[in-house]
Amino acid sequence: MTSTAKTHPIEGANRSGQTRVALLPTVGRRLLRVQRTERITPRYRRIVFVGADLGADFPVRRFAPTDHVKLFFPHPRTGELVLPMITERGWELPQDAGDPIFRDYTVRSFDAAARELAIDFVLHDHGVAGRWAGSAGPGDEIGQLGPRGNVLFPEDYPHYLAAGDETALPAIARFVEEAPRGSRVTAVIEVADLGEEQKLRAADGVELDLRWVHRDRARIGEGHLSALETAVRAAGLAPEERVFAFVAGEANALKPIRRFLRRELGYGKEQVDVDGYWKRGVVNLDHHADESEEPDSE
């Protein structure tokens, strides 16, 4: 993660040159139900939620594309949905409840007028969340906590890089859609194959260079850890440019990309936000722990 300045509240656009965190005084707790679903690609599904506690004041901010919530899923065998209470001591579970099943998800969009929250899910059979998302239908219930704050990206750069794998696609999509007018965005996104490409559009006045990396056939350069690293290196970034870079995905795969941005290109710490969204073999990775951070020098 980049160096951040924590303040509350932050009004208007963030023109500080670095990410800034607006912490919220309370963490929302909501019971949501599925309103409708939409298949985005063969492996990606959008689920739109509504709920009695999902008000128009849901804390979503423009150009805060990494803001996320915790979703709590029913137990796949018993159907029990455990949603903790938030107290001064932290989480408190209902008496005799089992362990909660939860995962972090990026807020893809929020429609304040309709009070609808959209979350995009990667579909897979090896996890509770992916299996639930693949079969969920209207009326199905889920628990939700957060966000606990808004991470506002800086809006005073002429050039932005947004890169990552499919787990980062919701954040990258919002990044592209909400980038400041007059800027240029280079988006490098690794997905399984051609069929997993999504339609992303930047706002008027934003120049978009969209580069898809197909994992089934993409070239991995000599000495590189991933096809994403190879593609980022080929994106034409220059050391003398004033660039803000956001990169997210599998934590270990991001380390050489961070080294490239920080050490080889010489970008300042405030210019580079690298976020490990997941890590092979680890459930519920705490990406606030800066898993992808390394010392700036050996």
TrEMBL record:
Top-level taxon of origin: Bacteria
Molecular-function GO term, any one: oxidoreductase activity
Annotated SUPFAM superfamilies: Riboflavin synthase domain-like
Domain FAD-binding FR-type: 27-154
Pfam families on file: FAD_binding_9 (PF08021), SIP (PF04954)
Name of the protein described by the UniProt record: Siderophore-interacting protein
Annotated organism of origin: Leucobacter triazinivorans
